[in-house]
Amino acid sequence: MKYAIRPLEEGDINDIVSGETRIFGYSLGYDMIYAELKINPYAHYFVLEIDGGFGGYIGLWIYEENTEIINFFVAEEYQGLGFGKLLMEFVIELCESVNVKTISLEVRKDNQKAINLYYKLGFTYSHERKKYYNDSTDALVLIKHLR
User: Fold this and answer.
1) Whole-angstrom Cα distance, residue 38 to residue 73?
2) CB within 8 A of 129, min separation 6: which ones?
3) Hey, which of 15, 18, 21, 128 would disulfide with 54, CB 3.0 to 4.6 Å?
4) What is d(CA 38, CA 35) in angstroms, rounded to the nearest whole number?
């Protein structure tokens, strides 16, 4: 499989919305992602292309010495092949290159696969956000401190 990570383009938004809906049951929505792309100076969104097609994405805000991962997924057919780790390592390297000190993210408390990945990458538990998601599932807030 050939893959590439590249900046999000407007034409990718429909793939993101449909992918989020399939995987999470909801989406940030076309308008929000479009606004992030066009208006938010802190927003950085990247697409994972696999064999020329859409394989996933990751969105983050970089501000001062902090980064917050906004959303992230790998398409179901590519999960378990190391692409999630690849995207996360890409973001960590990007953050290190611009002197970010802390990366944070929220993850569903019941998403053990994602939690395991984050812990393997050096994220640690910070706190819990009760009933954070639309279905009232709690979120864990995880943080990674960079050098």
Assistant:
1) 21
2) 106, 138, 139, 140, 141
3) 15
4) 5
Flag whether the pTM goes above 0.90.
yes
d(CA 55, CA 61): 21
What are 25's two structure tokens? 């049951």
CB hemisphere CA count around 6 (13 angstroms)? 12
Q: Tell me, what amino acid is at 48?
A: L
Using alpha carbons only, what angle is made at residue 11 by residues 8 and 14, rounded to the nearest 5 degrees?
95
Distances (CA, A) of 57 to 5, 16, 33, 126, 128: 9, 7, 12, 24, 25
Write out the chain's pLDDT in tens, 147 residues.
899 999 999 999 999 999 999 988 888 899 999 999 999 999 999 999 999 999 999 999 999 899 999 999 999 999 999 999 999 999 999 999 999 999 999 999 999 999 999 999 999 999 999 988 878 889 999 999 998
Name the one residue in this structure whose structure tokens are 């792309």.
Answer: 37
The single residue listed with the structure tokens 């992602």 is 33
Closest CA to 93 of 60, 50, 49, 126: 60
